[in-house]
Amino acid sequence: MPRTRHLLTAGALTMGAALTLTGCFAGEGTSAQASSNRVSLAMLAAPMANLSPYSEDAFKLSRWSAAETLTVLDDNGEAQPLLATEWKKDGDLKWVLTLREGVKFHDGTPLTAESVVTSLNKALNASPKLRVLTGLEVKFEATGDREVTITTGTPDPLMMNRLTSPQLSILSAAAYLPDGTVTPVGTGTGPFKIVTTNGSSSAALDRFEDYWGEKAKLSGIDVSYVPDGAARAAALRTGTADIVEALPVSQVSLLPQDLVNEVPMPRTSTLYLNNEKGAFADPALRAAARAAIDRASIVQNVYEGRADESKGLLGPALKWAAEIRGDVDSIARPAAPAGQKITLATYTARPELPEAAVLLEQQLEAAGFVVEQDVREYANMEKDMMAGVFDMVLLSRATVQDTGDPATYLTSDYSCKGSFNISQVCDPEIDAVISAASASELGEKRREAIMAAEALILKKDAALPVLHERVLLGKAKTVSNLVLDPRERGLITAETTKE
């Protein structure tokens, strides 16, 4: 483990990072200098699309509590009320929702069925198509002052879950500009209102005094985007930032441990094996690779114990998965690799992955494989990865996506027509169990069907999960009541306080 490199990097950067950030947070908001009851937040990534909800920026809006959706996910990944207070099914294709009363947008206009339908239709017609609505035939209608009816072309058990996606945040009419862009600045419904943005540098939010629920206890949030992990850690250490997201594992040991918070996240680092061609078209060699991996060594030496060894594709962030997981032992017997050459690819955006790949190479070669690594920037490897150029790909992958339901991930990654089928797997038996899971109604039966699909994928060694990542969040002692959300949709809420 190259601990010395980590210490040298931190030592070299800490002083400069602290100096750089000293002026980043004070005075960003409209009332930052007038009130100390604001929190400063250092985030990993700057906005990709000017905070458009039709991009990954949508998750910033939800983490700031600036924009809200019709429904929200509970711990089991099932929809609960938010801007919609209740809903009922009308046959197999229709849902009727009742909207919350007394909700105002940040620009003062009221939430109505018409405004909700306008917002949903804008999202439906967005280009490129939003993942959460891809392949869905759907119609949104205002059927009363506070009633919205949703009709789908085919039965869709995930419809209410889809509405939890931050990309389907409900915004006022003013959000939709004549040039086709969408802005959440002053157009959301959350307890905090975006008042200023400064490109890839910063943003500021003030408490929304006309919020429909309990008013925020904080007076505002000052956000800075700090892509350098050592700089984010330095901001927490020096008190420049009250909250720091995505602390690098290499920095955590250098911080006071009472400032570090961690929670399992639904993200698994997995070795995707090429099931179609090359060495791993042979189930016995896939089994041999599985037997060679020492997960505990990778968790301890690369992640410094701040990750969880995988027992399956779905990790401890989904508590129900472990409770109903059955036998996942390989069907095939391992064969001797006997010098079989394989390529192991990974990417640089997540610094732990290349380090993990080094240990995996050593473990696989000890078992008899001959390994050639290919480490690139993600953008330079994605095309080859999807085309099946590599024998193995080590990838960090979210296992619950826009709907909060893992069946979507299983379909995209392990079905014949999957849109992210790196393993090039096309197995009628696997397709059948994934289809059964996808068609099941939400609840216990769907969870059991999902675990049956996971079990078959693992028994056939279509992919080898290595570890489950954790959310590593820095928080000053003065800050309370943050949401430690495994899905990274929530963070600061109306209940968050600062002493």
From TrEMBL:
Annotated InterPro entries: Peptide/Ni-bd (IPR030678), SBP_5 (IPR039424), SBP_5_dom (IPR000914)
Residues passing through the membrane, by range: none
Record's signal peptide: 1-26
GO cellular component: ATP-binding cassette (ABC) transporter complex; periplasmic space
Gene3D superfamilies from the UniProt entry: Dipeptide-binding Protein, Domain 3, Periplasmic binding protein-like II
Keywords, in A-Z order: Signal
Domain Solute-binding protein family: 79-419
GO biological processes: peptide transport
PROSITE patterns, sorted: PROKAR_LIPOPROTEIN
One of the record's GO molecular function terms: peptide transmembrane transporter activity
One Pfam family of this chain: SBP_bac_5
PANTHER family: MONOACYL PHOSPHATIDYLINOSITOL TETRAMANNOSIDE-BINDING PROTEIN LPQW-RELATED (PTHR30290:SF65), PERIPLASMIC BINDING COMPONENT OF ABC TRANSPORTER (PTHR30290)
Protein name per the record: ABC transporter substrate-binding protein
Biological source species: Paenarthrobacter nitroguajacolicus (Arthrobacter nitroguajacolicus)
